[in-house]
Design a protein that fits this description.
It contains 17 helices and 3 strands. A hairpin with a 5-residue loop joins β1 and β2. The longest helix is centred in the C-terminal third of the chain and has 62 residues.
Length: about 425
């Protein structure tokens, strides 16, 4: 029978840690509840979450009390911390613990000072009579509109624990998708940085030394091969104009930031992202997955469709997708179908449009949107894997060609010198 690691709270809100044997995660949770415990984290032995449980327990128990800081309205926390908080709160409320008690318990055990202060403030507000959603509005940079509106819908419908579970699932899937993309891009970025460092080292250190050797051996640069002259000229320009080069790079970075912050520039960048030869497909599928997951989760949680579309537009992450959602919003407001504006946008594939059409006709639009999200998350995973498998050998080949050209340019004069010496010796 599998072994499970768990973190649970007793009747007094004290944290307890242990192991137990159970047939499944659900059986393990039931065993803990029957024992009078409120589980906050349960994971099978050997799973990634099990290691996270051990690490979190070590952090919370080994350091004593965490420092509590006063949290302002502009405070921010990592998405992972928010994800853990949402999952644990959902688990506690689902286990029968009142909201206020759950917040108090989580605030007591939270290791991160900013998150700890936020949770304690939320608990104080709830205790004084504010609703949970009203309390969340004090921290707009931690809890976005999607989060707040879903909690509000859960409070109005009396299904807060269900909505929190959906929020936790949404955050976990979004984080998983983000981690996949980041992990896939790490290796190509490392190879790119190493390649750039090697080329700069060769051009600014090795080539100048060989230039000196060639001048001593041949006496005139005119005797050098054209390839060697070109490489030496490029190296000299890099060395002589290095501050101009650095200044140019800084200017490009600052110019890019200025363009990215302007409305027209942002739209141009987002449109370009979707049309890139290799990365555009991944960008498009990621945007479609986010749109479908967000809208489906909101509508399923009881948020009105028009309000859900507004929230989805604000969290789309791409202005082209946002413009398409605006057209969808206007069409729905007039009592029309979502299909026509989605089709006219040119962003959404035919499969997505067909599934949305079927969902509207059958009254199962939220379910269809979530299915679209699942399909496109798998598509993103496959596309990222394919992109990585293409980029890795391509970058290695490019690096080999560049380094090979530099090495060839440096050794061609040496070969000529050796030939001349051999000829002279034979005479």
């Amino acid at each position: 029978m599998p072994k499970f690691h768990y973190i649970a709270l007793d009747q007094n809100g004290q944290e307890t840690v242990g192991d137990l044997d159970a047939g499944s995660e659900a059986d393990a949770i039931n065993q803990l509840r029957q024992s009078g415990l409120y589980p906050t984290s349960v994971a099978a032995e050997g799973a990634g979450q099990a290691a996270a449980i051990k690490k979190r327990v070590k952090t919370t128990s080994g350091k004593g009390k965490s420092k509590v800081v006063k949290v302002g309205a502009n405070a921010k926390v990592k998405s992972k911390s928010l994800m853990i908080f949402t999952r644990q709160l959902a688990t506690l409320i689902d286990s029968g613990l009142p909201l206020l008690r759950g917040l108090t318990v989580l605030g007591r055990q939270e290791p991160h000072p900013v998150m700890k202060g936020t949770i304690n403030t939320l608990a104080d507000n709830v205790q004084t009579g504010s609703t949970f959603s009203e309390s969340l509005q004090q921290y707009p940079r931690i809890f976005n509109k999607l989060y707040i509106n879903m909690v509000k819908a859960g409070e109005l419908g009396g299904v807060l624990e269900l909505v929190l579970n959906r929020l936790a699932e949404y955050q976990e899937k979004a984080q998983k998708l983000k981690n996949k993309i980041v992990a896939a891009m790490v290796y190509p970025m490392i190879v790119m940085c190493i390649a750039a460092a090697i080329i700069v080292f060769l051009m600014m250190v090795i080539v100048p030394r060989f230039e000196t050797i060639f001048e001593d051996m041949l006496g005139s640069k005119d005797k050098l091969p054209e390839l060697t002259k070109m490489v030496i000229g490029f190296s000299r320009n890099m060395f002589e104009y290095k501050w101009y080069l650095i200044g140019g790079i800084v200017a490009v970075v600052l110019g890019w930031r200025v363009i990215a912050t302007s409305k027209g520039g942002r739209r141009w960048i987002d449109r370009t992202k979707l049309k890139l030869p290799l990365f555009g497909d991944v960008q498009r599928k990621t945007a479609i997955s986010r749109f479908s997951r967000t809208l489906g989760t909101l509508v399923t949680s009881g948020v009105p469709i028009l309000q859900a579309l507004n929230i989805t537009r604000e969290t789309a992450g791409n202005t082209i997708i946002s413009d398409a959602i605006t057209k969808v919003h206007d069409a729905v407001k007039e009592g029309e179908s979502m299909v026509a504006p989605l089709e006219s946008s040119g962003v959404f594939p035919a499969m997505v449009i067909s599934m949305v059409d079927v969902g509207e006709e059958t009254g199962q639009l939220p379910e269809m949107l979530l299915k679209i999200a699942d399909v496109y998350e798998d598509e993103v995973d496959n596309s990222v894997s394919a992109l990585t498998s293409m980029l890795e050998p391509l970058m290695i080949v490019v690096l080999a060609l560049v380094v090979g050209v530099i090495v060839m340019a440096l050794f061609l004069p040496l070969i000529e010198v050796i030939k001349n010496l051999s000829g002279g010796g034979g005479g």
